[in-house]
Structures are given as C-alpha cells and as structure tokens.
Amino acid sequence: MSLSSGCPTDLLAQHFYEEPAQYQQLLTMAFGSTEPPEKQGVVSIIVKLATFFRGSPQLLLALNTILSSGYALTFAPLPTISIPHSIDRVIFTMPDESCIVDLDLETRPSNDLLNTQNSHRATLPFRTTSQMCSFVAADEYHEMNLIVEAEDAPLVMELLQFELDRTQAASLRRRYLKSLRHLNRLHGVLPPSMYLRNIVCESEFPVSGGGFSDVWVGRLGEQRVCIKVLRMFMQHENKEKLLKSLSNEVILWRQLRHPNILPFLGINIELFRPSFCITSPWMSNGDIISYASKSSMSFKEKLDYAVQIAQGLAYLHELDPPVVHGDIKGANILITDDSRQCCLADFRAIGDGYAVLQSDT
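That's the Kinase-like protein sequence above. Prediction below.
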C-alpha cells in the first residue's frame, strides 16, 4: 500500500479529539481500498487530504506520518515566512516520481490531476519529474529559458533536486544543478526539503564560535547535530544579500556526497529567528588539531588521515564543475565519532560562478 494506517501524530490526534467521526471519515477517505491504488489514485487521495487541511499547514505537514516510506507531502516556505496561512500548490513525492499538484477548495480534483491549473496562477513549464526530464534534456535547453514565478520557484526546485538525488548522468546533473542555481539567484529561495522543522537545540550556550557564527549542539530526531547560527549584525540590504549568497552555497553543499566531506543536513529559519541556521552532523572529536592534542596518533593513523584528506580534495576537484576547497587547515578537518574518518568542512566553493562559503568551525 502507498498509504499507512498507523497511529496519527499528536497534532492530528489533538485536532480530531472531539470529532472522532470526522477523523474516521478522513481515514476512510485515505484508506478506503484494500488494494494498492494506481499512481493517479494515490495523487487523488493526497489532493483530497491536503485540500482538507490547506488552511492549516501544520496539520498538512502532519499527514506525512500516515504516509508509507518513500512518500512525502510538502509545500514551499518563503525565506521570511516559515509557515504560510494557506496552501494552494504542494509537492507530492512518490518512490519513482515527484509532482506538483494544485489544491482548490471550490474545484474538486479532476481526473487529470497533474495538469490541473488554477486560473490565478501562471502556467508551470512542467509538473512532474518525467516532464521535467524531457524539458531539460532537450538540445535547445538553457537554464535562462526556465521562467518560473517566485512563489512557484521552490516547487520547481524540489523537482530538480529530486532528480539530482537519483541521476548519475553527468550531463543531466550539470543541467539540473545550473537550473537550480539559476532559480536561486533569481528568487533567493530553496527547495522545501532543505528546511528542517523538527530540530531542537540542546545546549544552553554556544559551544564555540567565531566572527561569522556561533555553534550550538542540537538534535534532529535521534541524531546529534551541529547548529551553526549566523550572526546578523548588519543593515537589512546587506543581510538579504548575505542570505541569498548563503542559500546558493548550501545548494552546492547539498549535492556533495563523499565519506570525507562533512554532510549537509539542512537549514532552519525558525529556531534562532531572525538568524539563519545551517545544520550538519555533530563531530564530538572536534577538529584534527584538538583531536591530535588529546590522543596519541600512530604514524599509520596520521598517514590514513592524510590519504582521506587527499581523497576528499580529489572528489571536489573531479566534480563537474570542479570545486576548490580554498581553506585547507587543521581547524577545517573534523574527526568522526568513531575516529576512523576525517571530513573536510567549511570549504569555499570556487569555480563556474560559485560564490565563497566562509564560516567558522
């Protein structure tokens, strides 16, 4: 089944506490069939549920808890508004495809759900990842031809990111990434999946910091994380410029996947509002300098770490387009909790127009 009838979240349970019949009706609407619905049927069910909750975005997000693994529902938060008051377009992700669907209280979903248009919104260049792949793969395609309104840009970027996560072809990945960065430069927004909402801060005070940010200890589910909070002591115009530049940097960091590169987990705009938080896994051993001062490393261990640093750099340099770290030093090399791996952090992305990422470890 594409939907799971497991226990609802506390949020959904509280909402329907005094109206169990309505909650039962909701579940019947979602799980009325014992047979796995076709793709069109899945989208139809989700549109009905999402339309029901379109005026309550927090409950709309809570619907993800009754979706099976591989299925997700999200919408596009704006940089200055974390949770909009009402939703009219959402992204629905399935294991093999992601699509943009319209919600309309006055018009019930039609049979042709993926092509439904709201009269007050501009036509999208594509609505599914299948359509997007054909659009981007065309010989005459150029990212400058990708025209999308600001309010729809995050949704289109989500489709691009979905394909970046599963596409291996270098030529297509380059086009997807350039399109993603083009929309980011135009509108200063990010794919909705990059926003983390279930993150909590555990430390009472920053555990470290520097000229550009403070570092706090947090938790994302069961994972301990590093929350880097950017300092915002600047004029409004400069702040907007910084946030736009940083959003372009995290788009690049999001694509990097290598055992010797510090993983990017996401951003948060609510926890330390109005500051911008960047989240990565917590490395309790710290950087390689502090680790070396507290432990006795053998020559073999030092050689292993040197090789890993070289492997991380080779990975960055072999990307298309290549990425140059730009600031290799001990403070920017972190040691994993099991002491077996070192990860390059705080790189400066240089090449093919990438801006500089510079923050404090």
